[in-house]
Amino acid sequence: MLETIERYSQEVHSAQFTTKEEVEAFRIQYLGNKGILKDLYAAFKNVGIEEKKNVGLALNEFKKQIEEKISSLNFQDNRSSKAILDDFTKPSSSESSGSLHPISIITYEIIDIFERIGFSVSEGPEVEDDWHNFSALNFPEDHPARDMQDTFFLSLGQSNYSLRTHTSSVQVRVMEEHSPPIRTISPGRVYRNEAISARAHCFFHQLEGLYIDKDVTFADLKQTLDYFAKSLFGKEVKLRLRPSYFPFTEPSAEVDVSCTLCAQKGCSVCKYTGWLEIMGCGMVDPNVLSSCGIDPNTYTGFAFGMGIERITQLKYRVNDLRLYSENDVRFLQQFKS
Ligand code: DAH
After folding, report:
1. Ligand 1 nearest-atom number relative to CA 209
2. Average pLDDT over residues 204-226
3. Overall domain count for the chain
4. Type and span of the H or E element at 174
5. Is residue 263 part of a domain?
6. What integer pLDDT is reported at residue 79 of this predicted model?
7. Can you give the pTM of this predicted structure?
8. Is the CB of 58 inside a 6 Å radius of any atom of ligand 1?
9. Which domain, by its residues, includes 45?
10. Is 231 left (phi over 0), alpha (psi -120 to 50) or beta?
11. Ligand 1: which of 207, 304, 308, 310 to mutate, judged by most atoms within 8 Å of the beta carbon?
């Protein structure tokens, strides 16, 4: 019997496997209910008393050898051993795919709409100097928007830097670097020193628009925004402009679209007014044109700026701003297309 065990032991030692299935067959062959080990234990009962001790020890060793062989193969399996790599028919492991963030989806959609009517995309820095964020945009020295409560100021040497509070700063950079005609949109992240809640955040996203040329009028602005709103929200949407004030535009207006959620019947999103505010706009103030080296006697232009979270909220009915930056995959997965 010792010889039989030795023979099997040699076989186990030299056994080679290329697939998981072969390992499993090996396990059944030796350790299964009707396996070799079972037969050997059955035969062990008939071994004479003087041989029993040695055969028993050899049997136990043999069992250990088989178990170790199998577990060493499993170990290799986890680490993608050659044996497993060689199995080209093995199904690939499924990786869960990511998806675009809703803010990105809407940003791309808006870019697409404006690119169709000749606007190009421009970008600027998030760390901005006082000139580009405020002064060139005609903000008076004591304007409340410069206040510590709104702006994250940075102490970087002598100069006055802050995190940009709006993407209007990019208008200034584009006008300084290019001469008209200018037709550009500038999407990007902006920062405000606000307490974080469902309705306010210390960072969010805006998209700025700028059109400078000879004879640009308020009618061009209105037509452009009408085209934009209808492309984004649907043909049936109506636009309303309310007079407003921004330091960098004159005249200025706030833009509302008819509430598409309730068809203007009144709902909690439009606060029962039937209208939703989506952006600010106006004719670029002549002071801003001069500050940026463009002659206001030759050129006119319009500008507009919208909050991307706000638009996304209207498109997807997300009512808590914090969801956008929590990275909760349960939220993000809903935007898989
Ligand atoms: N920069 C403004 C803000 O952050 C938005 C804005 C309003 C931009 C009117 C414009 C504009 O270009 O004309 O609230």
Report:
1. 12
2. 98
3. 2
4. helix 168-177
5. yes
6. 47
7. 0.73
8. no
9. 2-85
10. alpha
11. 304
